[in-house]
Amino acid sequence: METFVPSGKNLERDRKWHLIDASGLTVGRLATHAATLLMGKNKPTYTPYIDLGDHVVIINAEKVVFTGRKLEVKMYRSHSGWPGGLKETSAQKMLAKHPERVLEGAIRGMLPKTKMGRAMGKKLRVYAGSAHPHQAQRPAPLKP
Question: 78 has which bridge partners?
């Protein structure tokens, strides 16, 4: 038996494109599935120190679902760095204004907090509606 160790060459050639329709899916479950695809953990050649993940396109982000009372209770916080600069937005308002940010934040929070994790995050594309500009890449529809 011979051990196979992937090299960091020609990675873009082997990457696939996945299309996920988020309508009716739960935020966390969708995020874990997308993060797994971005990291490449679904492949038998997964190596922790090489980015072998695929590209992920998510459409219909506005139709994603929160379970329980998270829509009213969950808060998204940002701070300007100045005293009194904390801003809070409920999940309901965030989903109405910026549905892409809800999924991007959930998925990027599940990726490694390193240079490689940021590179994995750049392979994620989230769109509020059903239209997306990645038809040329022929993304394969995926049901999580």
Answer: 87
CB 99 within 8 A of CB 129: no
Q: Is-contact 48 6, C-beta < 8 A? A: no
Per-residue pLDDT tens for 109-126?
Answer: 999 999 999 999 999 999
DSSP state of 93: H
Distance of CA 23 to the CA centre of its chain: 15
Q: 58, 37, 144, 140: which is closest to 101 by C-alpha?
A: 58
C-alpha span between 127 and 49 (Å, rounded): 29
pTM of the complete model: 0.93
Q: What is the pLDDT of residues 88-109, one digit of tens each?
A: 999 999 999 999 999 999 999 9
Polymer length of the chain: 144
Which are the contacts of 46, defined by CB distance < 8 A and separation ≥ 6? 39, 40, 52
Cα 53 from Cα 44, distance rounded (Å): 11
Q: What's the CA gap between 75 and 86, in Å, rounded?
A: 12
Is residue 130 within a helix (H) or strand (E), and if so which, with residue range?
A: none
